[in-house]
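Q: I have 346 residues here and want to know how they pack in 3D. Can you give me a structure?
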Amino acid sequence: MRYDDLYLAGVGAYFPKGEPVDDAIVRGDYSLDAQERSGQQAVAVAAEGDTQPAMAVRAARQALARSGHGPDDVGLLLHAVSNYNGLDAWNVAAYLQKEVPAPAALGFEIRQLSNGAMAGLELAAAHLLALSDRPAAIVSAADQFAEPYWNRWTCNVGMVFADGASAVVLSRHGGFARIRSLVTVSDPELEGMQRGDARFQSGPDPEQFPVSLWLRSLEFFDAMDPDEADRRMADGLRNSAERAAEEADMSVRDATRFVVPNFGRELLHKDCLDPLGIEIERTTWEWGREVGHSGTADQFGGLNHLAESGRLRPGDRIMVLSVGGGFNWTSLVVEITKDAKAYPSV
């Protein structure tokens, strides 16, 4: 969809200190061959107190403080998470409303795996334009891949899972970037890639831990040829990105920079760069290789990195690419309206 009067007013992120991949190789948790294929240098790993909700609060507070909006301006708060939200039978979005704060907002949790934050952005845009009597919305994202539930090093091939959080404030009143277009496409024939042969159960089964997404993918490939799955993956991303570019009156390659998922180098090429014909040097790869794949938090985290590092200039067109199991692809085009030097650091 094309947008004319919707902006990103603030962005924030919190990523714990990175653990060098070399340390994991020495311990035997990660292989040198896998590192050579992924190019991963470090991975953000939560320290004590870096819970999923706590990291989300830090990122959302930062985004709101930078946005020029106050708590009472926020009419919607959406929080994306791809795994455990910190506590069973509990509303993490309400907690964020209280702690950020955004007391007048409606609060909802989003579950769309790694595309959750970008899906939330699309929902927030529709809400602001159609329903809200308040000018702003917060979309936050956080994930934590903790043992014994996850082995961040071997859960999936081609990436290493990281802990962290990010957030944006969407506004009708202006901001550092104007949203030009936002397009999501899906292919539910691929949903089994994250399910495999696993049976549905009434509660978590300790026998399933640590989760192996790679094993589930191998089981899925008994039902769908891997080449067919790869074709569908490439088509989904290409459809989303090309439609978003067209609605922004540009081509994909016209973008100044690309924010991409924090996949390993080989997987990033296969799933994102090669289908669109874009060079890795034009992406957030150099930042991502020091962070890892933080589930829902990659995209806003990449935007935050570009803003804080002074790499955004008025007139730049940034394309943000997102991929989530299910499968869903969301592509966003924003045009920078303010020099990054004027972006407040808080």
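Q: Anything worth noting?
A: The two ends are 32 Å apart (CA to CA). The first strand starts at residue 7 and ends at 14.
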